[in-house]
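A quick word before the example. In earlier lectures we treated sequence and structure as two separate objects. From today on, think of them as two lines of the same record. Here is DUF4936 family protein written that way.
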Amino acid sequence: MDLYIYYKVKDADAASLQAAVVPMQATLAQRHGVAGQLKRRPEARDGVQTWMEVYPSAPEGFATALDEAVAAAGLSAWTSGPRHTEVFGDVVSCA
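And the structure line, produced from the sequence above:
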């Protein structure tokens, strides 16, 4: 399964949030073998950016480990509102 987590961050908090997310993702990669990606929409609206974390091919139980890592990193101090998680899987061909 692939996890897509999106959330809002104020322009003023973006650098602090990035400084927390990058090492969190590095630790998750080391412990769980999932190479996280950090993305953002190219434009901000009213001083607020939309960011997305992507975790491809996440193993079972990874979502719980991610929630724990987010809490330990204190990301809520820099996000504006809740984190929204979407889960996607590959489309399997019936060939």
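Notice the following. The chain has a mean pLDDT of 96. We will return to this example when we discuss secondary structure assignment.
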